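Morning F.,

Quick status update on the modeling queue. The single chain you submitted on Monday has been processed. Sequence for confirmation:
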Amino acid sequence: MQKIFTLIFVFCTLAGLGQTKKAPAQKTAEPSKPENQLQSWESSDVPADSSQMETKMVEPALPRAFMVYTKKPKQKTERTKLCFNLISADTVLNYCINDSICKDPETYKILFNSKVGDTTFVLVLVDAFTKAGDGNPRCDAGKETKLVFFRWNTKTNKVKFKQKVISSCTRNIVNMTKEPITDWDGSGVLEVNYYKGGSGFPVVKFDPNQAQLGLQDLSEDEPR
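Structure tokens below.
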């Protein structure tokens, strides 16, 4: 009987000691971060600054092809330009002139192209409709047409040019040439007649056999 009481006493003592001991605190496991995790812009410590995210306007590279196009001004101090992209076997010439009338040409064509040594002679026809919004409703369907002659040194890439406006609703110039200029095949002399108002009937001549002379102005009394 005494042994039974002894065992009960020992059991109660051990149970009491077990209740007085505190269980060790368990650390909360942090969620594992996957490797190579992409950080979103919203969660970044760097504040979003709009000035650092400005989109830079880069002009697209021009193709290696003949073309005539309008280059519009990016600033108020600049002017609208008409640009010619001429090509040769050796180089490319991108040449722009101030022109706010003959804009976005619908038709452009090389009428003549000949090379002598390092010099290339090019005659270009440019034709555009008068653009609406120029302050002259009468010319909403008018024409703006010009001939442009280039004397181009393909070695130095320097150029001299001469242009003649042969049709312009804005400037009251009327093309009086009988045959379409685009039909000229370069086998003979090209003569272009136009009317500038009053008694002015200028004639412009281009002789493919004397290309170095470029566009020549003919007086009314000169034999043709």
